[in-house]
Write a structure and sequence with these properties.
The protein is of the alpha+beta class. It has two domains: 34 residues; 133 residues, Nucleoside Triphosphate Pyrophosphohydrolase, CATH 3.90.79. The strands form three sheets. It has a four-stranded mixed sheet, with helices on both faces. A three-stranded antiparallel sheet has the order 1-2-3, with no helix packed on it. Strands 6-5-10 form a three-stranded antiparallel sheet. Strand 8 and strand 9 form a beta hairpin. The longest helix has 14 residues. The mean pLDDT is 91.
């Protein structure tokens, strides 16, 4: 809208929590009307989400318990990037750790914000094919079950609520642009 600034200038910042995976800060910002308000921001490393498709056109998904959701979720392999790690390297590492495969082909599907009202965290989505067995040790706090799902079943699983994880839904829908829905 005309006359509105393009951002909310930060007047003050204070850190309220420093954790292993996240930091939380409160920014006091100036609004377009001149008032000030606080914005609570959760800093989390950028991450990757990978849609691995095998030679039989099955998507290899992971099923794992997610404590904040209080249930098991069916997800595309994903994980946070390590400091200094480029997204492609993180995607390859996560595939090897979570599903025990190395991608012969890795194609970017795009980048999106996970929750822009709360965090600046970006997720890099990839499609991978030509999978080759190659394992890295899994994280010691992850207990993952692999599920091979026919590509043609993905739209139905999303529509039925069997896949409820937003990053997985976004990456799978982005992959449909490349692979089609059949």
């Amino acid at each position: 809208m005309p006359g509105f600034p393009t951002n909310e200038p930060t007047v003050a910042t204070r850190t309220v929590y420093n954790g292993e995976f996240i930091d939380i800060r409160v920014d006091t910002v100036r609004l377009p009307n001149g008032r000030e308000t606080d914005r609570e921001i959760v800093n989390h490393p950028s991450s990757v989400c990978v849609v691995p498709v095998d030679a039989d056109r099955n998507v290899i998904l992971v099923r794992q318990f997610r404590k904040p959701a209080g249930q098991f979720l069916l997800e595309a392999p994903a994980g946070k990037m390590q400091p200094g790690e480029v997204p492609e390297a993180a995607a390859i590492r996560e595939l090897q750790e979570e599903i025990g495969h190395f991608p012969g082909r890795l194609q970017s599907l795009g980048v999106f914000f996970m929750n822009p009202g709360l965090s600046p965290q970006c997720m890099h989505a990839y499609l991978t094919t030509d999978l080759k067995p190659s394992e890295l040790d899994a994280d010691d706090d992850e207990f993952i079950e692999l599920r091979r799902v026919p590509w043609t079943d993905i739209p139905t699983l999303i529509a039925a609520g069997a896949i409820q994880d937003a990053k997985s839904i976004a990456a799978l829908l982005l992959a449909m642009r490349v692979l089609g829905d059949n």
